[in-house]
């Protein structure tokens, strides 16, 4: 197997290129995906390679082009719709929730919606409140859609083909801090199993659950704790809906302690859901209360020191694990 | 009359075509079948056999009867929560529609949609959306898929005057015109967005004018005259199918009954409703047929009887049909993998 070092952005581009080349039904559309090359340069060069019919620049009409992706999927196409960021996806929420997620059920199983909707998520770039949301936990609330969050270069490369093979809508959340990160990419079959969470670092003393952008902070915390003799098992959730309970709870049964890192706000969050699932399924296995490290309950501020204070940092994760292993 | 559409229907291109005696009888059959089906639904609603929201189309039948049969079998339809007429005119089986009203497993949506969400893959009927303007983006996408694959199919998208105030309407008309998508936009302007009169909600009440601003052919049509609607539909569909461009029809119509079964209709003047009932599209076509000697009392009675029997059989079938087992509640949330 040939291994090469690529960025997360390049891995996504490679996945899109392969999908466009391999299936006539696949096309990419969104704001500035064509001539601009994508807001995060993910689709750079694809317009030149595949032409404007299959790499479609759209107007600033999130509801129309997301809904058009859903409609094209109904008619048998395999659209990949890029919404610049999760912040703007709110303008298409009606289409995602009221159409993509409901049509199969409302039609009594007649109409499935094989659309993939990709978007950037998360904070950390001093873009203030309206450009820093982490709302993937909201989307994970909705039955009828699948929600995935690639945290590694391999998943950035491998989740798209899996998502495109799915007969139902898949939302893919790409944390903004990950696009320029680098990693090794294997050369073999890259389609990854999006049904399973991944253990990114084995450990015996506590289970640390993260996903997407927070995996970086979790791994950094685990490394620091290892120096103190605390071996943390780091789980990358990968799929936020449906949650892979077996991997999460299986780990907690071994370590008897759980810490959850979530860039969403704590109240009504994905971390709350995970915490509940663990207590429902492994309450008597727990040797300590479940700890959560979440974003402070404020709109994300601009000033660097305030933004940093609002977001889950490795130091806070380390502190939470120490408390759990107490 | 205290409310009217305020503009002359003067932008229709070309002369009207004569549909012929047989054609007129077919149009009458379509409208009467919708009318009688919905009258039965209202009766069943009052008897608590049908629940949820029930929005009837009574008074507006000429729109569905004039447009839908003009489509080809491979064309797609996207509709709204006031959709019984579109589904019936499309040939979605009446029995399965009635079973859906009853929430039975034999319903078009297996009892999961109800009156507002009728779906039928066989006729490419992509359902009623209960979100005002929520179906327009789907129509744009269906048309985009057909165009990208070189198909000659078109998508007919129905919505009401209320949708014109929604952002999605403007996003979609822009997108359809920009990308030359084969969509026939059918705006059923019945003058009220639920209880709010057109002029109380829209700064510009000439809806065709607003659609035309996106660079597509758009004109108003007398939606109470089924022949005029059919004529307009054929011209518009020709432009969409052959010209590969979207087109917009403003069908000026009126619902004779309240918005839904929950609506006590306090916002409309009784005299206004009565004045519009004078323009009942079914009565008008029957009168014309009689005057022209095309329609006899026996012919009409036979048609009524045929429709009554079909509806009665559908009611009996729905009464007898099984329910979806509760054990299957969570089916069709995700596709079933084999």
Structure in words:
The complex is a heterodimer of chains A (326) and B (338). Chain A has 13 helices and 14 strands. Chain A has 326 residues and is an alpha/beta fold. Chain A folds into 2 domains: 4-185, Rossmann fold (3-Layer(aba) Sandwich); 198-325, Rossmann fold, CATH 3.40.50. In chain A, the strands form 3 sheets. Chain A has a 7-stranded mixed sheet with strand order 3-2-4-5-7-6-12, with helices on both faces. Chain A has a 5-stranded mixed sheet with strand order 9-11-10-13-14, with helices on both faces. In chain A, strand 2 (26-30), helix 2 and strand 3 form a beta-alpha-beta unit. In chain A, helix 1 runs parallel beside helix 8, helix 9 crosses helix 13 and helix 10 packs across helix 11. Chain A is globular, with a radius of gyration of 19 Å. Chain B has a single domain (21-318), classed as 3-Layer(aba) Sandwich (Rossmann fold), CATH 3.40.50.970. Chain B has 338 residues and is α/β, with parallel strands linked by helices. At the A-B interface, helix 3, helix 5 and helix 6 of A face strand 2, helix 5 and helix 6 of B.
């Amino acid at each position: 197997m040939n291994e090469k070092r690529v960025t997360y952005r390049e891995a996504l581009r490679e996945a899109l290129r392969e999908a466009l080349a391999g299936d006539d039904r696949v096309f990419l559309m969104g704001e500035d995906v064509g001539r601009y090359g994508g807001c995060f340069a993910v689709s750079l060069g694809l317009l030149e390679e595949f032409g404007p019919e299959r790499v479609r620049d759209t107007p600033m009409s999130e509801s129309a082009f997301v809904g058009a992706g859903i409609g094209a999927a109904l008619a048998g196409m395999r659209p990949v719709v890029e919404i610049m960021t999760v912040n703007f996806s709110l303008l298409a929420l009606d289409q995602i929730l009221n159409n993509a997620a409901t049509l199969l059920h409302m039609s009594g199983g007649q109409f499935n919606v094989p659309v993939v909707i990709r978007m950037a998520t998360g904070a950390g770039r001093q873009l203030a409140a309206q450009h820093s949301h982490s709302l993937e936990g909201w989307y994970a609330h909705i039955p009828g859609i699948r929600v995935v969050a690639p945290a590694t270069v391999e998943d950035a490369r491998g989740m798209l083909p899996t998502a495109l093979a799915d007969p139902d809508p898949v939302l893919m959340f790409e944390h903004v801090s990950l696009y320029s990160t680098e990693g090794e990419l294997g050369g073999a079959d890259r389609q990854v199993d999006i049904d399973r969470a991944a253990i990114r670092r084995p450990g015996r003393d506590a289970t640390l659950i993260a996903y997407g952008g927070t995996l970086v902070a979790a791994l950094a915390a685990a490394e620091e704790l290892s120096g103190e003799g605390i071996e943390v098992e780091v789980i990358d959730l990968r799929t936020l809906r449906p949650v892979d309970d077996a991997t999460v709870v299986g780990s907690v049964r071994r370590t008897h302690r759980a810490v959850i890192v979530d860039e969403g706000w704590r109240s009504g969050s994905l971390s709350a859901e995970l915490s509940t699932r663990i207590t429902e399924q492994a309450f008597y296995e727990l040797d300590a209360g479940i700890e959560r490290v979440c974003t402070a309950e404020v709109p994300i501020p601009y000033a660097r020191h305030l933004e940093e204070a609002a977001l889950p940092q490795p130091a806070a994760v380390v502190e939470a694990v120490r408390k759990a292993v107490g | 009359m205290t409310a009217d559409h305020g503009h002359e229907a003067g932008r229709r291109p070309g002369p009207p075509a004569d549909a012929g005696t047989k054609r007129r009888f077919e149009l009458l059959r379509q409208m009467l079948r919708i009318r009688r089906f919905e009258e039965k639904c209202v009766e069943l609603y009052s008897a608590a056999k049908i629940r949820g929201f029930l929005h009837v189309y009574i008074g507006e039948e000429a729109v569905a009867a004039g447009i839908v049969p003009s489509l080809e079998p491979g064309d797609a339809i996207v509709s709204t929560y006031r959709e019984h007429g579109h589904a019936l005119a499309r040939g979605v089986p009446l029995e399965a529609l009635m079973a859906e009203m009853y929430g039975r497993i034999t319903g078009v949506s297996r009892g999961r949609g109800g009156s507002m969400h009728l779906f039928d893959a066989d006729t490419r009927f992509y359902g009623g959306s209960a979100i005002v303007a929520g179906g327009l983006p789907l129509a744009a996408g269906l048309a985009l898929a057909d165009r990208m694959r070189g198909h000659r199919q078109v998508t007919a998208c129905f919505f009401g005057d209320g949708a014109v105030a929604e952002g999605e309407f403007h996003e979609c008309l822009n997108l359809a015109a920009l990308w030359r998508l084969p969509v026939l936009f059918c705006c059923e302007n019945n003058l009220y967005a639920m209880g709010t009169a057109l002029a109380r909600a829209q700064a510009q009440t000439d809806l065709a004018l607003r659609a035309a601003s996106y660079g597509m052919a758009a004109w108003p049509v007398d939606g109470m005259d089924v022949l005029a609607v059919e004529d307009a539909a054929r011209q518009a569909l020709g432009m969409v199918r052959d010209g590969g461009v979207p087109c917009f029809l403003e069908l000026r119509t009126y619902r004779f009954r309240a918005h839904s079964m929950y609506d006590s209709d306090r916002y409309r003047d009784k005299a206004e409703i009565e004045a519009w009932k004078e323009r009942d599209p079914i009565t008008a076509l029957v009168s014309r047929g009689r005057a022209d000697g095309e329609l006899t009392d026996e012919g009409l009675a036979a048609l009524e009887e045929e429709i009554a029997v079909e509806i009665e059989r559908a009611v009996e079938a729905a009464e007898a049909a099984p329910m979806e087992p509760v054990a299957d509640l969570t089916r069709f949330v995700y596709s079933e993998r084999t």
